[in-house]
## 1
Amino acid sequence: MPELPEVETIKRDMQKVILGRKITGVYVHKPVVIREPSPAAFKKSLQGLTIKNILRRGKLLILELSNGSFLTIHLKMTGQLVLSQNLRNSGGSGNSRVTFQLSGGKTLNFNDQRLFGELRLVDSWKKIKFIQGLGPEPFDLTYGGFQDMLSEKKTRIKPLLMDQSFISGIGNIYAAEILFRARIDPDRPAQSLSEKEKQALYKAIKEVLKSAIKHGGSSIDDYVQLSGKRGDYVKFHRVYGRQGQPCFVCNSIIKKNTQGGRGTYFCPKCQK
DNA sequence: AATGGGACCTGCGCGC
DNA sequence: TGCGCGCAGGTCCCAT
């Protein structure tokens, strides 16, 4: 699921509704999702802490806690964070892996069908290996910097956009949508892009991500917002998941192939 | 440096 | 109805 727009949507909702709340209970239903420290220590340490701030870096969500430690959450493919009122059955639903009881009668569930998700409690999020390997945030890019980053790369452009050490936050859906918007074939070597194409790509990255955030992200299967509501951006997808259907721009049939093991959607006529 | 494949997991939809 | 296969918003690790 979650790429930058989805994680950003959750972050913003969390800032509205769980900031300042105290963690009054932690229930670990699947210890495997707790990557550090041990599940027992995780549970014990979180107890009684207050949520002071919510940050995002790439696809990683970071909760700053009252004792200066950080709870980091990576949703990977099927992770969800869903807030509800306390109910007798809260936490018992389907794929709940960890349940956080919060002050004010709220329950935050971390759900994750495939168990790829990772929760960590750390002293400093900046020291996490995953964080240290991340490239710049898309919204921090300057055109000059972006141009330089592309110029030495022989890799095909689509896997490059998804490479978190190159730029952080873009995944399979948005790489496809961005390249469509920039009218660039996903197979093009990065360094082959013309000046004009680089400009179009730079612009498309910011526009697509911004618009996806505005519409609450893309709910295909699992991703939902903090409220449990689905994100609306799927209706704006122009290529992702549209293989066999007509291009909205030129009416050609949208194609799907595989690149680096990932489904790649594109319009063979619009994207050169 | 770049690319492909497999691993980690669970569940869905499809064709037979 | 049931089974096997391919596929899924991510990332890491290994081989070539």
## 2
Amino acid sequence: MTTEEKIFNAARVVFQKKGFSGARMQEIADEAGINKAMLHYCFKSKELLFKAIFMNAFGQLAPQINEIFNSQDTVFEKIKKFTHSYISFVMLNPYLPQFIIQEMNNNPDFVMSFMNFENRPNPSILIAQIEKEIAEGIIQPIPPKQLLLNVFSMTVFPFAAQMMMKGMLQISDIEFNIMMEERKTLIAAQIINAIKT
Amino acid sequence: MTTEEKIFNAARVVFQKKGFSGARMQEIADEAGINKAMLHYCFKSKELLFKAIFMNAFGQLAPQINEIFNSQDTVFEKIKKFTHSYISFVMLNPYLPQFIIQEMNNNPDFVMSFMNFENRPNPSILIAQIEKEIAEGIIQPIPPKQLLLNVFSMTVFPFAAQMMMKGMLQISDIEFNIMMEERKTLIAAQIINAIKT
DNA sequence: GTCTATAGCCAGATAGAC
DNA sequence: GTCTATCTGGCTATAGAC
């Protein structure tokens, strides 16, 4: 593993846990097992390092989502595939959703300044398809954007609000993982059950 | 309005928007229209000011939730009441959910050190009730904690991930508010439709 | 490339006048 | 109680040896 990779991995851990303003360059250096000066040698500044981490994180998620949204499947199939593959992926990167949500909220201008809008998740095809399937009587009437919001909510929220939900529902890390494993199929079943004709 | 109140309101705005580490005492002072020294005169330190804000925020939410969770209503009635009243309340404080989630994730130890555990949302009665109604055949079988997670997800997520969802679904602030208004009844209908026998 | 040492700045906190 | 001015510590960033 190159030094740059060590820094990158360390920075991902620290930024995703503490956020941009909470992260310390010293902590990233310690996590990487190198000196603080190397961070600046490799990535020039905290902002540029953060930018690299954020774009990488976002870049991993967006294409997966678009691939599923824009495939030839039915809406129900898409919901099943999305929830399953999103949960599988995020279980390996549990801090990712909260990280992205947090930085977009805390500093929208900064994030927007380097967001890649070409690759952003684009649900317009799926929205049209939902409208079509409603017209065909396959799906019960519902505003398409509300349906998408439901799918994202059920899938992403448990990871974004992990600490809070673990505390409120009194569940351990292990139980949490079991529940998320179960949600890979449970969510889609619930959503489809709610809107099927 | 007393100076203390002016500070408190200003601090709430800044902390909820930027988080603990992103917030600046100077910015809070400016927002309050007073001097930075007054902050320390009134609240001693940034941490204590934050603590006051966080506990107030959490203290507003928890009792409402418990009241609904522990009433004499049926599960379906509770879901309807919770989603409706939670959304109504949070529409007046749109930064609140993300604020609480973020700080619990970024600095669990700090937050836990002053969290009021007596008043925390406690779903144990509701969980027992769900099990009972499943046994009675009123609700389709589902792990109670998964059902609760679904209710919270559908209700809280749109506010927590506001920026991201506005960007992805291409909705304006006004459209967002219309959608949230609609969700006051839509969510409960969806959830109940998915689990009713 | 990798380190040590340090510059320079900024934010939280305080002293002290009024 | 409210201000101005200032201290102090910590953090980003850089200079410079090796």
## 3
Amino acid sequence: MIIRTGFFCSTWDNGLTTNRKIKFQNLSHKRVIETFLRNLNDLKLILEFCKNNGFEVFRIGSNFVPFFSHKDFKDEWRYEIEDILKSERKNITKYNVRLTMHPGQFVVLNSPDPKVVSESVREIEYHSFILDSLEADQNSIIIIHIGGKYQDKQQSIERFIKNLEKNVSLKRRIAIENDDKSFSVNDVLQISKFTGLPVVFDYYHHLINPSEFDLHDLIKTWVNKIPKFHISSAGKRKYEHSDYLDRKDFDGFKKLMFPLLNTDIVIDVMPEVKMKEKAALIFLEWIK
DNA sequence: GCAGGTCAAGTCTAC
DNA sequence: GTAGACTTGACCTGC
């Protein structure tokens, strides 16, 4: 088994970030382009850092283009951003770092409210637009959660599947992840059976919201894609993430991966902790 | 230049 | 009923 790793959004030490944003009251062509260009520039610097330090995965911040999915965002701005992304494509893909995205908690495909669903679709379309403009390969996925339970889990699952089928073009990049409250790994695997979506396994969420599942079933959901895993540790409060990864969580994760140990599989494991590249460097040492 | 309040959006849990 | 956790701290105002 080969484990690759990386980090998300920004660096801790030198303040690089792909997640700058603006306030809605300041939404304008000038501010949007300016903020996007700063995020884009830092993306290139972060990818350079990744190349120099052995990181092969990076998650771009969801504010990469602020308010892109908002109804007040002008089409002309979109065309301009598309042109910039296309002209910078090679400067970004040349690092061969797997780029992924993870929209915010506002993306709820299984909401009973049609407005929430349509805005979620717009948000996923925005994330796809970024990755498509960069012509990122099939490993560049957009990771979402299933959504709420709304007191009826089965119905909520069915609504997720139905709403997804109405927007079938989005499925190409979507991967679904278990969460810490409502949908366990086993739940997400069941949904994957109906949708064909790959399943991102989050170890920390799995500890809080556990279920029985077969690791091979999970790996099988990744057709033509490198399986992706998230790992993190408990912070001071319940549900909160820690600054660094706890060694015991790495050991626990390793134990779960035991069935893959003597295979030639490649997997990506991203530590979701606050100290970003500093924590990822430690993680890199551990996996070596 | 810095501290502290604020920020587009949903859902759930703890208090 | 509300604050705070998750995506994610960065922006902005006032001193």
